[in-house]
Amino acid sequence: MQPVMTAATAVLWTTLAAAVSLGYFAFGVYLLRQYEGIGVRSLAAFSFLWSGNYLLSSGTIYVLVSSGITSGADLTPGTLPETTEVVVLAIVEPPLSALLTVTAIFAWLWFVLRYTRQTSQREKLAVAGLGGGTLLVLTLNGVIGGTTSIGQLSIDPALRNRITEFATVVEILGTGIAVGVGIALLYTTTLSHRTFSRRAAAGLTVPILLPWLIGYLYQFGLVVDFSSIGALRTVALAAGLLGLWIAVSVEDLFEQLPASRTIGRQTAFDISDTPIVVLNTNEYIADINPAAAEMFGVRSRETVGMSVSTLLPETIETAVLLDSESITFTLPNSETVLEAVATVATDDSGQQMGTTIVFNDITDERRRQQRIQVLNRVLRHNLRNDINAVKGFVGLLADSDGETTAYRDRVDTKLDGLVSIGDKAQSTEQVINAEPRTDSPISLEELVWAAADADHKPHLQMTNGLSETTVLVNPAILESVVAEILDNAVRYGEDVTITVGYDPETTTLTLADDGPGIPEDEILALEIEQETALNHGSGLGLWLIKWGVNRFGGSVVFETGSSGTTIDIQLPPALVSTSASPAEPGVTGSAVAECVSSVSVAFCRRRVRCVHSAVTVPHFRQSHK
User: Fold this and answer.
1) Burial 356-394 (b: 16+ CB within 10 A, else e)
2) CA-CA distance, 201 to 188, in Å (whole number)?
3) Which of 358-372, 385-399, 478-492 has the lowest mean pLDDT?
4) Count of other CB atoms within 10 angstroms of residue 437
5) 115-126: per-residue pLDDT in tens?
6) Higher pLDDT residue, 61 or 122?
7) String of b and e for 14-27 (b: at least 16 CB within 10 Å)?
8) Are residues 522 and 625 in contact, defined by beta-carbon separation less than 8 angstroms?
9) What local confidence, expressed as pLDDT, does residue 109 receive?
10) ∠419-424-428 over CA atoms, to 5°?
11) 22, 27, 28, 34: CA torsion to nearest 10
């Protein structure tokens, strides 16, 4: 009677497990009919596969119990009856069960990935590789086991055991990683996405975790009686089905999508023009957005795992950066000024998770402050001195009973100087407000000639390379810069020669003279980028050159000494092109100038074509006004 009762109990629990398994199938149909969107199909696929897997297991147990086998301990090749049903199951069930189990688990993992976060191409390949490898090993092991159990394949028992052990290890690792990663993502999402509750996470965890663990109880021989296994499976499957129902219907699983939040944040992180770097708790780079990678000249993948100090100038200490509210520094070999603000990221319990550093480019703001400071000091200094001088001369005129011509000339000179300063300030403002680029390429030689007036040309000497080079720089800016150099050279030099050349390798326009050098205090004022009581220029000339070159993204270097001055203007390579064709021949001698209007600066731009490549210009002024 006892074996009969055991068999009846096994059949009962097996039937109940099969009925609950059908509930998973019905739940999958319900999902497809009632919901749509990300995650619906993958969760429905899991339900269908899970249903099929446990229907197959229930059917297998039913056939074995009907053949008098009520325990897994009795499943040996010698005890299996050679009925058609048993033979078919022995061959079909192991590989099919492996297929259904692995695909169901990875369908569940895919649902979790799609639901909770954005899946990258690498993650897709990782899931496919892990799932495919696990499935292949288990399927081969199932085929070998099935054919061996019915005597269709003869294999050494020791080898068979090793194959089974290897397949078991692969199964545990493959499915274990999938289940573990999925559960971790679910519960991590409950922390970052407030509307995704822990009850919903539990409802999605129970259907996969309990049946998976019960399967290993049977596989490792801890529970082998079919009645007990049937009861455990029935309870686990019923609990899982209830959990799915609660997660979907009660917790409104598909009314929200945590992945949207993740994708939204990641998208904002990726497309933001603001450079952002994320550090882990060890101050190593955990993530870096494209804007930051471009600014620092690095590749995102290569920097992950590196110390943040590799991105910073040597003068900036990481500890100071992370402990300060904000810190300002200039990028090496650049005029870009950055303000770095570090924010500590914490979880709900206040535990530090890392640090986010936002870099704000404040170069334009600093330049505006610099211009205001320079203009203020120059205008105040020159206006005060010249007006005081004019007042003095006027007083002398009033008190003089004799010749007053010399005093009147001095007054006129000072007043003309004040008008010149006003004009220079206006020109400077127009240059720094002009559009930096043009759509029409212009020859460098034409630009230099257009900048030179009749007083400049006799001193100018061009070298090869200028006529073959065109630029997309707004002529209103570059001509103003060159004109300022030439004007000061003629004004303050005596019979000097200015040689104008171009280096295509460094895209550098060079103007070199053999006159007196620029005073050191003026160069120092440019280097420290501000005028002080001790370090200041006598005018706006050098500043106009510096600001004008900065406007179109170039850089300028002044080298001066007793033997002359060399000014190197490095042009952005993207705005320069070199043609092998020679420049179009034009007139000789005093070239014909064509006056054209400029949108940004109202002055005449003289287009000059010269048949020869040599011209001369005077030295750069000693003190720019």
Assistant:
1) bbbbebebeebbeebbeebbebbeebbeeebeeebeebe
2) 10
3) 385-399
4) 16
5) 887 666 777 888
6) 61
7) bebbbebbebbbeb
8) no
9) 93
10) 150
11) 150
Say if residues 143 and 83 touch (Cβ distance below 8 Å).
no
**Cα 174 from Cα 186, distance rounded (Å):** 19
The mean pLDDT value of the chain amounts to 77
User: φ, ψ for residue 508 (rounded to 5)?
Assistant: -115, 125
CA-nearest of 389, 618, 343 to 495 is 618
**Half-sphere exposure for 617 (CA within 13 Å, toward CB):** 32
Task: Return d(Cα 309, Cα 330) in angstroms, integer.
Answer: 15
CA distances for 594 relative to 357, 445, 589, 605, angstroms: 53, 15, 16, 7
Point out which residues pair with 557 in neighbouring strands.
568
- Six token digits for residue 91: 């061959």
Give the pLDDT confidence score for residue 417 in this predicted structure.
67
Average pLDDT over residues 279-290: 84
Closest CA to 429 of 357, 380, 504, 379: 379
- Each residue of 59-90: b (16+ CB within 10 Å) or e? bbbbbbbebebbbbeeeeeeebeeeeebbebb
If you ran DSSP here, which 8-state letter would residue 250 be given?
I
Give the burial class of 418: count Cβ atoms within 10 A of its Cβ; 0-12 exposed, 13-18 middle, 19 or more buried.
Answer: middle
Q: Residue 261's pLDDT is what?
A: 56
- Please check the confidence at residue 192 and state whether its pLDDT lies above 90: no
Give the span between the Cα atoms of 13 and 11, in whole angstroms. 6
> 567 and 545 in contact (C-beta within 8 Å)?
yes
Single out the residue of 315, 611, 617, 326 nearest to residue 496, CA to CA: 617
Considering only 11-15, 75-79, 165-169, 503-507, which range has the smallest mean pLDDT? 75-79
Q: Give the angle subtended at the CA of 115 by the CAs of 136 and 178, to the nearest 5°.
A: 30
**What is the Cα–Cα distance from 6 to 405, expressed in whole angstroms?**
133
- In what order do the strands lie in the sheet containing 276-279? 285-288, 276-279, 352-361, 337-346, 327-330
- Kindly indicate the confidence band of residue 151, based on its pLDDT and cuts at 50, 70 and 90: low
In angstroms, the CA 226 to CA 72 distance is: 7
pLDDT of the residue at 266: 63
**Crossing angle for the helix pair 541-551 and 475-492, to the nearest 10 degrees:** 160
C-alpha 77/C-alpha 244 separation (Å) is: 39
Check residues 429 and 509 and name the one with the higher pLDDT: 509
Question: From CA 148, how far away is CA 158, in angstroms rounded?
Answer: 13
The percent of residues in the chain predicted with pLDDT above 70, rounded, is 73
- Total length of the chain: 625
What is the DSSP secondary structure assignment for residue 611, as one 8-state letter? S
Model's pTM, two decimal places? 0.51
Comparing 187-201, 243-257, 561-575, which segment has the lowest mean pLDDT? 187-201
Residue 27: what pLDDT? Answer: 95
Q: Please, which residues bridge with residue 339 across strands?
A: 328, 360
